[in-house]
Design goal:
Length: about 240
């Protein structure tokens, strides 16, 4: 469904991605794990069209999207909930969600809104409240909900558990699993590697801009090197 083939990305003279190859099949949750600076967020930004490629190719549903603009990619069905949430703090919850539906070009978005409110009942309760007054967990729900309003075929999630209390982390991952069960393919970047691997079908390990390991999520959960580097030596 989504394929990155030998992708290189630079920030000035610094090569952030050094020829990564990643694939995401329809219906999967695929996660990218790695230390800070490994290239995980850059990978998502490159897929979204925010960072240009220096070399390589990206295809989506068999179509070359390497040079597509971000708004074109959203219209094709690639949507991202970015690191740091990126909501509009002065706009209400409902207005934030409506912004997510702009790619639907005036089509009735009631079904998408109903889906978001079913997944995140708190957002319905807070629908008239400014986004900036929500708690961190509620803002994360809003960021994911806004992306869902565009009817994504692939949802890119960048650090959805960042800064959240453990109870909220568990809730967010349960919702991510439900979104996938409803038919949305997910590419997940997450520092909480244990949670990510428990929810994912497959995973890629990135180190300094390179894919160094790929396997099923279960295999990586039981990989001694991965456990020592990213799971604190344990999967408990």
């Amino acid at each position: 469904m989504l394929e990155l083939d030998d992708v290189h990305v630079h920030y000035g003279k610094v090569e952030a991605l050094k020829g990564i190859t990643v694939s995401v099949k329809q219906g999967e949750i695929v996660t990218l794990i790695g230390a800070n600076g490994a290239g995980k967020t850059t990978t998502l930004k490159t897929i979204s069209g925010v960072r240009p490629l220096s070399a390589g190719r990206i295809t989506f549903e068999g179509e070359d999207i390497t040079r597509r603009k971000p708004h074109q990619l959203v219209e094709m069905g690639i949507c991202q909930a970015p690191e740091g949430r990126g909501i509009f703090p002065g706009m209400s919850v409902m207005e934030n969600l409506e912004m997510g539906a702009y790619a639907n070009r005036g089509k009735d978005s009631k079904s998408e809104l109903d889906r978001v409110f079913e997944l995140f009942p708190r957002l319905r309760e807070r629908s008239t409240q400014p986004g900036g007054t929500l708690s961190g967990g509620e803002q994360q729900m809003l960021a994911i909900g806004r992306a869902l309003m565009a009817k994504p075929k692939v949802l890119l999630l960048d650090e959805p558990s960042m800064g959240l209390a453990p109870k909220l982390v568990a809730q967010i991952f349960e919702i991510i699993t439900e979104i996938n069960a409803q038919g949305t393919t997910i590419l997940l970047v997450e520092q909480n590697a244990a949670q990510a691997l428990r929810r994912a079908h497959r995973a890629y390990v990135l180190e300094v801009g390179r894919v160094v390991k790929t396997a099923t999520a279960d295999d990586l959960l039981n990989d001694d090197a991965v456990r020592a580097a990213y799971l604190g030596g344990s999967v408990e």
